[in-house]
Structures are given as structure tokens and as C-alpha cells.
Amino acid sequence: MKNTSAIKVEGIVEEALPGLLFRVTLRTKEGQKQILAHLGGKMKIHKIRIVAGDTVAVEMSNINDIRGRIIRRF
């Protein structure tokens, strides 16, 4: 069964890491938080490039709050 309870937040890419991982700083109500995020499926298919300094939308599950998936680049 698919878990549909995902949280969507905006953040800024701080660093590109090997293996299509990115260190993203999120803007939350509590302050700033750094997570590791990977590219979503459509971003890989359409070969959308992400570099440091980009503003992105990140989708996170309720269970694991230190990992996420980049779903959109602004």
C-alpha cells in the first residue's frame, strides 16, 4: 500500500554530492534544517540539472525526517 502522507517543503541546495544526492537546507517554521535529498523520477527522466544555490521543492515522509526527494526546481 502506498503511503500518501508526504510533507512538501521548499529549500535551497547547498552542495551536490556523489550518487545524485544533494544537501538541502529547508526553510521551516522552527528554523533551518539540513537534509539529504535525491532526485525524483521525472527529474531523472527529463535530465533536469540541479546545482548549488537552486531553490527546490522537497517531498519528505513522516517517518524519516533526514531524507527527502527533490520533486521540482524553481
From TrEMBL:
Q: Does the keyword Protein biosynthesis apply?
A: yes
Write out the similarity annotation: Belongs to the IF-1 family.
Lineage top rank: taxon: Bacteria
GO MF, one annotated term: RNA binding
Q: Taxonomically, what lineage is the organism? A: Bacteria, Candidatus Joergenseniibacteriota
Chain ranges of the S1-like domain: 1-74
Q: What is this protein called?
A: Translation initiation factor IF-1
Keywords for the protein's UniProt record, in alphabetical order: Initiation factor, Protein biosynthesis
